[in-house]
Amino acid sequence: MMEQLYQEVILDYYRNPRNKGHLDNPQIKACDVNDSCGDEITIEATEKNGKMSEIKFSGQGCAISQSAASMLTEYVQGKSVENIAKLNKEEVLKLLNIPVSGMRLKCALLGFKVLKLGIIEYLGGKNGSSS
Fold first, then answer.
1. How confident is the model over 56-77, as pLDDT tens digits?
2. pLDDT category, 91, cuts 50, 70, 90?
3. Residue ranges of domains in the chain
4. Is residue 106 within a helix (H) or strand (E), and if so which, with residue range?
5. Of 24 and 103, which is predicted with more confidence?
6. CA 108 – CA 130 distance, rounded (Å)
7. Fewest beta carbons less than 10 Å away: which of 3, 47, 108, 130?
């Protein structure tokens, strides 16, 4: 019964994605494709005062990859960029709140992987530019 409820939440995020779209001038931008199924995610974000001020995602793929990306954008909105950089996959999987099989793990974590790539690039560039 509970698993069915969580599956409905996943489908709701898939049908009514939160934070889907593009930003005009993102400071953080990354994209990636899941080679095993073709799912793709792009994440664009802006940081203000050390916090994630705006975040959007775009892409296409299965319900799990798209829902997970949507949930992730909601979760990190307003959080410190440094804390987001410390997020781990277990925390992200907890957001989904459903059992994810090995085959679907890459789908569930694609948005997380993209967000991490973008933040690492952003923080690296930011730290590298300060003299």
1. 999 999 999 999 999 999 999 9
2. very high
3. 2-126
4. helix 102-129
5. 24
6. 35
7. 130
Entry pTM:
0.90
Tokens 């974000």 — which residue? 45
The secondary structure of residue 54, as a DSSP letter, is E
DSSP for the chain, please give it.
-HHHHHHHHHHHHHHS-SSBS--SS-SEEEEEE-TTT--EEEEEEEEETTEEEEEEEEEE--HHHHHHHHHHHHHHTTSBHHHHHT--HHHHHHHH-S---HHHHHHHHHHHHHHHHHHHHHHHHHHHH--
> Under CATH, which number does the domain 2-126 receive?
3.90.1010.10
Residue 23's pLDDT is 98
In degrees and rounded to multiples of 5, residue 13 shows phi and psi of -65, -30
Number of residues that make up the chain: 131
